[in-house]
Specification:
The complex is a heterodimer of chains A (114) and B (111). Chain A is mainly β. Chain A contains no helices and nine strands. Chain B is mostly beta strands. Classes of the chains: A mainly beta (114), B mainly beta (111).
């Protein structure tokens, strides 16, 4: 799976949009971009994923550049409960040889402040 | 949230004793996974299952075994616990082959 690079930490003011960058310059054509987050002492929580097109759900938006070498996760109105470590992961679709293993990196520690 | 529970949530045990962790799901998902999370290593896959009685090794499977006798339960056994197996263990499930949903975790301390 392609390696991802994320900033180790970032701060965000409550109520403002949080834009979390991720670099995945070696991504292959069939690899998806996934975002998870982990709030302290809890299990990782799925946020969103995409292949080529931008995606939006009730939690966040995912913007993938046209060359797919980077992406941005956008939390539109950050709250204190969004304080967490955010992981950007790229992986191939599940096949008989790849049973959906997710390779988590170090992630970005996001702190939302009042 | 996906219906996943893990038990026990916390356990303290002694070196050399066997330990079994249980993951239970109510989603009828086919795929189940066991991960461990340690500082500096992130989440690492121990074992996974792609159906009842169908399991395979992950990247850190030494010292661990698993069993899945029914869809809803995936058991992780530490055959003879060691201090290096002190960790937080997470179970995950997946039904659509795309998204994994994680349980709340089990904190294990091996003395």
């Amino acid at each position: 799976d392609a390696k991802t690079t994320q900033p180790p930490s970032m701060d965000c003011a409550e109520g403002r949009a949080a834009n979390l960058p991720c670099n995945h310059s070696t991504i292959s054509g069939n690899e998806y971009v996934y975002w998870y987050r982990q709030i302290h002492s809890q299990g990782p929580q799925y946020i969103i994923h995409g292949l080529k097109n931008n995606e939006t759900n009730e939690m966040a938006s995912l913007i993938i550049t046209e060359d797919r070498k980077s992406s941005t996760l956008i939390l539109p109105h950050a709250t204190l409960r969004d304080t967490a470590v955010y992981y950007c992961i790229v992986r191939v679709p599940m096949t008989t040889d790849s049973w959906g293993k997710l390779q988590f990196g170090a992630g970005t520690q996001v702190v939302v402040t009042p | 949230d996906a219906g996943i529970t893990q038990s026990p949530r916390h356990k303290v045990t002694e070196t050399g004793t066997p330990v079994t962790l249980r993951c239970h799901q109510t989603e009828n998902h086919r795929y189940m996974y066991w991960y461990r999370q340690d500082p500096g290593h992130g989440l690492r896959l121990i074992h996974y299952s792609y159906g009842v009685k169908d399991t395979d090794k992950g990247e850190v499977s030494d010292g661990y075994s698993v069993s899945r006798s029914k869809t809803e339960d995936f058991l992780l056994t530490l055959e003879s616990a060691t201090s290096s197996q002190t960790s937080v263990y997470f179970c995950a499930i997946s039904g659509n082959q795309e998204t994994q949903y994680f349980g709340p975790g089990t904190r294990l301390l091996v003395l």
